[in-house]
């Protein structure tokens, strides 16, 4: 679906970012992976044929501008931008936050919101020049449903969600589409660890928590990284050429919107 296209993935970590990079390459794209930690993106790029690694902090205008220059220098064009950074959440209620927690809260929001804005500001012009392109911002179920202790993550992703609507309206006349993919829980070691923490706190077994969480989804399963990546690839492809300003939920029926 992406044959001959050049795709940049920001926030390309070892989970969803790596899975997405592999899938995009398998679908025919030339992939650029960008994230703050050089060792991380270099490892991912080494696993993806022809991939390019660019260390970049998405909250740094200089880093993101340098990323755009690197893409131009290597490929001379850009067709797809995926903003996939997932800031951590500190699981602190607002009234419990220390000054250090407040600083961490702001940093998480900067990654989710400001980082998405910067990537679009410096990379979207490469698509505007050509009169076509696709931006997919990975938001979250949390961008539309708040949970105690997750206000940092939710606020950043909610900002990216509405930013996407604004950008869809701004960039549409130039042939650039902007959409969101909103995952819910994603099957991973991180999720398993969180379930174990909750099980210990409640004095129950891991399987009890897993069964309860599965029962909260209509499909009685938890979406995988590949499930989310395939949704992103669809919105990035020409098969979605008349879709912009939309959000595709990938949560196995955990939340209906």
UniProtKB/TrEMBL annotation:
It comes from the Bacteria. The keyword Cell wall biogenesis/degradation does not apply. Keywords: Oxidoreductase. One of its GO terms (molecular function) is oxidoreductase activity, acting on the CH-OH group of donors, NAD or NADP as acceptor. One of its GO terms (biological process) is fatty acid elongation. The keyword Protein biosynthesis does not apply. InterPro entries: NAD(P)-bd_dom_sf (IPR036291), SDR_fam (IPR002347). Belongs to the short-chain dehydrogenases/reductases (SDR) family. This is Oxidoreductase. It comes from Planobispora rosea.
């Amino acid at each position: 679906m992406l044959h001959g296209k050049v795709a940049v993935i920001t926030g390309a970590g070892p989970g969803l970012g790596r899975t997405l990079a592999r899938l995009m390459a398998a679908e025919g794209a030339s992939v650029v992976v960008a994230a703050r930690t050089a060792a991380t993106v270099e490892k991912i790029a080494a696993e993806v044929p022809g991939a390019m690694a660019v260390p970049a902090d998405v909250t740094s205008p200089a880093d993101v501008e340098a990323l755009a220059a690197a893409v131009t220098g290597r490929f001379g064009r850009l067709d797809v931008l995926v903003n996939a950074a997932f800031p951590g959440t500190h699981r602190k209620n607002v009234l419990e936050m220390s000054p250090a927690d407040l600083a961490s809260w702001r940093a998480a929001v900067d990654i989710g919101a400001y980082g998405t804005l910067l990537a679009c500001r410096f990379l979207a012009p490469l698509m505007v020049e050509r009169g076509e392109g696709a931006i997919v911002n990975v938001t979250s179920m949390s961008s539309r449903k708040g949970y105690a202790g997750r206000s940092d993550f939710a606020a950043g992703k909610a900002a990216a969600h509405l930013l996407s609507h604004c950008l869809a309206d701004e960039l549409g006349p130039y042939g650039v589409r902007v959409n969101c993919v909103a995952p819910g829980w994603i099957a991973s070691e991180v999720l398993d660890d969180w379930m174990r923490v909750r099980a210990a706190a409640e004095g129950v077994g891991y399987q009890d928590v897993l069964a309860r969480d599965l029962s909260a989804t209509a499909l009685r399963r938890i979406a995988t990284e590949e499930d989310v990546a395939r949704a992103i690839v669809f919105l990035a492809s020409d098969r979605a050429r008349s879709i912009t300003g939309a959000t595709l939920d990938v949560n196995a029926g955990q939340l209906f919107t």
